[in-house]
Design brief:
Blueprint (H helix, E strand, L loop, with lengths): L26 H13 L6 E3 L9 E4 L14 E21 L2 E20 L5 E7 H14 L11 H4 E3 L5
Antiparallel strand pairs: 1-2, 2-3, 3-4, 4-5, 4-6
């Protein structure tokens, strides 16, 4: 099922999410819905559960075919993710479906190692990511911690921009 993506100032977007319980019988439906919602959203490479109003620590991500992708783990749905390593920060523009009217310059690591529960096939998954995949993973983990990219800009005056709309 395609779910509505909530926008700021929705309270779930500014709260730390609860850990995923893999025994939860509703988890499989949430995983499917998260992937389906991400897939129908143009330009979307990641979507966290809080963005569909569910305060759980999981996100879907897939940078397959993205022009800025170097590493590519394919479709990943990660529960209870932990950033193990984050290095080589770089400032780049990013946007968010929950803040659709703006983009911003955000410094994020360009190389990360993320560990969590693989909610597609089970077990633990460790992702070594760089470039856009690293940025996407960090962006989604921020959502699980109650942060949006606007919380990461250095200056709202100089680093936040109105999103250009093309008709």
């Amino acid at each position: 099922m395609i779910r509505e993506v909530v926008r700021l100032p929705h309270p779930v977007l500014v709260a730390r999410s609860a850990d995923v319980d893999i025994a939860d019988p509703l988890l499989a439906d949430l995983v499917t819905d998260l992937v389906d919602t991400m897939r129908v959203s143009p330009g979307c490479v990641g979507l966290a559960a809080p963005q569909v109003a569910v305060g759980l620590r999981l996100f879907a991500m897939d940078v397959t075919g993205h022009r800025k992708a170097q590493s590519c783990a394919g479709l990943v749905v990660l529960g209870n993710p932990v950033i193990v390593l984050a290095t080589d920060p770089e400032v780049a523009r990013e946007g968010c479906m929950s803040v659709p009217d703006f983009t911003g310059n955000v410094a994020r690591a360009t190389r990360v190692v993320v560990r969590g529960l693989d909610l597609l096939v089970g077990g633990e998954l460790i992702i070594e990511a760089d470039a856009i995949e690293a940025r996407a993973a960090l962006h989604e983990v921020d959502h699980l911690d109650g942060l949006v990219f606007l919380d990461r800009v250095s200056s709202a005056r100089h680093d936040v921009f109105t999103r250009k709309r093309y008709l």
